[in-house]
Amino acid sequence: MASLQTALAEKPAYSPPPIDGDFYRIANVLDERERALITRVRAFTEGVVAPVIEEYWARDEFPFEIIPKMAEVGIGGVGYGGYGAAGGSWLLNGFVAMELARVDSSVATFWGVHTGLSAGSIYLCGDEEQKQRWLPAMMRFEKIGSFGLTEPLVGSATSGGMMTTCRREGDAWVLNGQKKWIGNSTFADINVIWAREEATNQVKGFVVGKDSPGFSVEKIRTKMALRVVQNGLITLKDCCVPETERLQNANTFKDTAKVLRMTRTGVAWFAVGCQMGAYEHALRYATERLQFGKPIGGFQLVQDLLVRMLGNVTATQAMMLRLAQLQDEGLMKDEHASLAKAFCTVKCRETVGYARELLGGNGILLENHIGRFVADAEAIYSYEGTREMNTLIVGKAITGLSAFV
C-alpha cells in the first residue's frame, strides 16, 4: 500500500495538449504571406474582440472602437482585385471568415456584410467610376456599408416578390418600401438597396446614403442571436436617389444573385468558425472542470461529445477548403455554394449543441461563452438563404427537376 501511495504522489501533474480546432492542419495549404495575415486576424480577435464581446453582446450594442483596429489588420476586400482591397484568394477570404467567427459570429457578420455583401455589390455591379468612388474608403473601413435585400413580408421569395419599388423621374429614381434585418444599417454610410422597377418589373440596385431624404432606419431590438450586429428596419418613403447612385451593372435579379453566390460561401465559413470556437471552449472547459477528483475530459461520455464535435468541425473545414478551391478556379456554381451553406449550418447547430451539453448548467452562462455560440448559430442557420431554399437549389441541380413552387 505504501508503494502505491508513493507512486500516486509522484504522478506528474496533468498537462493538457494544446487546444487547436484545426485537427487536419488545413491551414498548411496557405503560403507564408497568407498565414501571416491569419496570425494578425487571430491576434485581433483574441486581443481586441474577445475581452469585450460578452459585455457588448449582453447590452445589444456594437463595439465601434474595434473598427479602426480591424482596418489595421488589412482584411478589407480579401479576394478582390484593386481599389485598395487586400486581394488574395477566396480560400484566404474563407480563412479570415472562419477566424473571425471562431471568436464571435457578430463581428464576422459585420465584416461579411460590409466587405462582402455591400462592397461586393459595388465590386460586381458598379461601373468603374462607382467602384473608384466608393470602394477604397470601404476597404479602409472609413465608410461602412449595409445590404438591403430582405423585406418585412418577403425573405426567400425576393427574386420574384420584391415589394420595394423604384421609378425613374428624370435624372433620379424614387424608391418606396421597407427592408428588414439589415445588418450595419443603423450606422452605415453606404446602404445598397435593391428595388423592383415599376415599369419593367426588373430588380435594380442603388447606393443610398444615410442622410438621403426619405431614408430612415429603426433598430431591431430584443434579438436572441447576433446581438452585437445592429440590424435595422429601413423605410424608404419617396426616397430620391440620383441616377449616378444606381449600380450601373445591376439590371435584373440575376445580378443580385451573383453577389449572393459569392457571399454565401462566407456564411458557410462562419458556420465552420462558430463550431471551431465552441469546440475549443468546450475542450478547454473539459480539461479544467473537475468532478470526482479529475478533469471531466477523462470521462468516456465527455470524450464522445468532444470527438463528435471535432468530426463536424473537420468535415466542414474539408468541404469548405475544396469549395474555396473551386471558387478560385472559377468552377463554383450556385449549387456548390448552397450545399455548403445548408450542410455547414446544420452541423454548426449540432456542434454548438454538443458544447452546451458538455458544459451542463454552466453552458447557459454568458461568461462561459458557449451560450453565445448556441444563440448565434441560430441566426447563421437562417440568413443568406434558409436550409430549405438551399436544399431546393441543390436538389434541382442533381435531379434536373425544379421543386420550387
Automatic annotation (TrEMBL):
GO terms for molecular function: acyl-CoA dehydrogenase activity; flavin adenine dinucleotide binding. Residues 32-141 form the Acyl-CoA dehydrogenase/oxidase N-terminal domain. It holds the Pfam family Acyl-CoA_dh_N. Keywords: FAD, Flavoprotein, Oxidoreductase. PROSITE patterns: ACYL_COA_DH_2. InterPro entries: ACX4-like, Acyl-CoA_DH_CS, Acyl-CoA_Oxase/DH_mid-dom, Acyl-CoA_Oxase/DH_mid-dom_sf, AcylCo_DH-like_C, AcylCo_DH/oxidase_C, AcylCoA_DH/ox_N, AcylCoA_DH/ox_N_sf. PANTHER family: ACYL-COA DEHYDROGENASE (PTHR43188:SF1), ACYL-COENZYME A OXIDASE (PTHR43188). Belongs to the acyl-CoA dehydrogenase family. This is Glutaryl-CoA dehydrogenase. It comes from Bradyrhizobium lablabi.
